[in-house]
Structure formats: structure tokens, C-alpha cells
Amino acid sequence: MQIVVSIIISTRNRAKSLRQILEAIRKIEVPADMPTELILVDNASEDETSTIIRNWRSAQDYFCKEACA
């Protein structure tokens, strides 16, 4: 099935905002026949951003590719 909706979030040191955004996204009701993807890009954050992303993805059905240390 082809992706219909892509949400792309690029962030750096915005842990609090990212947490709020992800909670808002979690509440969106998407029809089962509408394939979606969420792409999170952490641009070398020095705050809790990477932890928030790890916690989010552990609670979701996902495919993850990491390109940073």
C-alpha cells in the first residue's frame, strides 16, 4: 500500500515542544485505509529530544533508520 500522508518533523533541542507535538499527533484519528508515516529528524540535540523519540518509537509500530550517534 502506498503512503498517503507523510508528517516530517525536524528538531533540535526542542524536547518540550516535541513531546507536545507527538501527543497531539497520537490523538489524530486516521482511517485504517489511509497509510501514514511520521518521520522524526533529530539534528544533534543536546537535550532530551533523542530520549523522547526513543520512547515514542518503542510505543509505536515503526521502522527506524538511524544515521547519528
Overview features:
32% helix; 2 strands; 69 residues; alpha+beta; single chain; elongated; two-stranded parallel ribbon; 2 helices
Describe the structure.
The chain has one domain (5-58). The mean pLDDT is 84. The radius of gyration is 13 Å and the shape is elongated. Helices cover 32% and strands 20% of the residues. Helix 1 links the parallel strand 1 (5-11) and strand 2. A two-stranded parallel sheet has the order 1-2. The chain is α+β, with helices and mostly antiparallel strands.
- Name the quaternary structure: single chain
Radius of gyration: 13 Å
Helical content class: 25-40%
Taken in chain order, the helices and strands follow as EHEH
What is the residue-averaged pLDDT? Answer: 84
Write the layout of secondary structure elements.
Elements: E1 5-11, H1 15-26, E2 36-42, H2 49-58
Parallel strand pairs: 1-2
Helix pairs in contact: 1-2
In short:
The chain has 69 residues and is α+β, with helices and mostly antiparallel strands.
